Amino acid sequence: MSVLRSAVSFLGLRDPEADDNTPEANKRKALRLLAQMPVVVTTYHRLRKGLTPVSPSSSLGHAGSFLYMLNGTKPEKRQERIFDVCLILHADHEFNASTFAARVTAATLSDMYSAVTSALGALKGPLHGGANEFVMRMLLEIGEISNVDEYIHTALAAKKKISGFGHRVYKTEDPRATVLRKMSKELGERTGNLRWYEMSTKIQRIMKEEKHLYPNVDFYSASVYYMLGIPIDLFTPIFAISRISGWAAHILEQYEHNRLIRPLAEYTGPLDLHYEPIEKRS
Questions:
Q1: Set 218, 250, 272, 274: catalytic member
Q2: What average pLDDT does this structure show over 232-261?
Q3: CA angle (112, 114, 86) in 5-degree steps
Q4: Do residue 95 and residue 207 come from a single domain?
């Protein structure tokens, strides 16, 4: 995420239209970012592994081209479709933290690259992006379905948070999780390894019984990405290369009907405090 955040900021430095805030220029920038961000993520991944970067394929769609640039081999049609659905499901979701951050920056009439960089900074935080990374690391730590009960009950007794559950908006199952659960099962069947899916459904059952919590979009996307051969630390950057479409749409909307976003703050601290001159302070 640090690489992606810095790369987007640098792309703004290299774009001659960066400070052109006309609707036409901003739409062109949005399309460029939609195309460039997957290249940044996959190129970084291959370089860190000592591999040669792979150029996008004009014969593949957006999702398929990402998997091709990541792995160096063209994905199966079904894999491409599953990943495409994942990108669609993550594309936009009301005024979440990163979208709000983007709109706050755009509201100052700063450029699109600055607004997207703000969004990336917000998404980098583990309370927003990154939950599916924690989910997959948890599944790997549990290891086997026979360990699920003890692990989850021990964690709950210690009042530890189980990543991938609960949502500020949904009080029942996140509808995106419903779709992703089916894809997790399908990929498990296709690979002959249902372990991650079966562990996930068992965790879901315990969390519903014990805490009355339902899975959100991050819970099943973890096993889906993992079974697609995607490294865990790329899960959140993938969130970003999907969400750029939503961020860009919000930024364009903010510019079109702009008003500076400037919330008021009410001071509720102590009053009538004594001011001590600096030379008398200890």
A1: 218
A2: 97
A3: 70
A4: no
Q: What is the dihedral of CA 142, 85, 230, 59, to 10 degrees?
A: 160
Q: Do residues 237 and 26 touch, judged by C-beta distance below 8 A?
A: no
The catalytic position among 45, 167, 174, 250 is 167
Does residue 11 sit in the same domain as residue 103?
yes
Estimate the crossing angle of helix 217-227 against helix 235-256, to 10 degrees: 130
Residue 241 confidence (pLDDT) above 80: yes
CATH number (domain holding residue 69): 1.10.580.10
**Is 200:194 a contact under the CB 8 Å cutoff?**
no
> In the 3-class helix/strand/coil scheme, how is 130-143 assigned residue by residue?
CHHHHHHHHHHHHC
220 membership: H or E segment, kind and range: helix 217-227
Answer yes or no: is 266 within a domain.
Answer: no
Question: What CATH number did the domain enclosing 172 receive?
Answer: 1.10.230.10
What are the pLDDT digits (tens) for 15-74?
999 999 999 999 999 999 999 999 999 999 999 999 999 999 999 999 999 999 999 999
Residue 26: the pLDDT is 98
State the DSSP H helix or E strand holding residue 80, giving kind and residue range, or none if neither. helix 77-89
Is 272 one of the catalytic residues? no
- Residue 93 a catalytic site member: no
Is there a single domain that holds both residue 160 and residue 203?
A: yes
Residue 276 lies in a domain: no
Residue owning tokens 């990405």: 225
Q: Is the dihedral of CA 91, 95, 96, 99 positive or negative?
A: positive
Residues spanned by the domain of 206: 131-227
CA pair distance 5, 155, nearest whole angstrom: 33
Number of domains in the chain: 2
Whether residue 280 is contained in a domain is answered as no
Residues 148 and 195 in one domain: yes
Q: What is the reported pTM?
A: 0.90
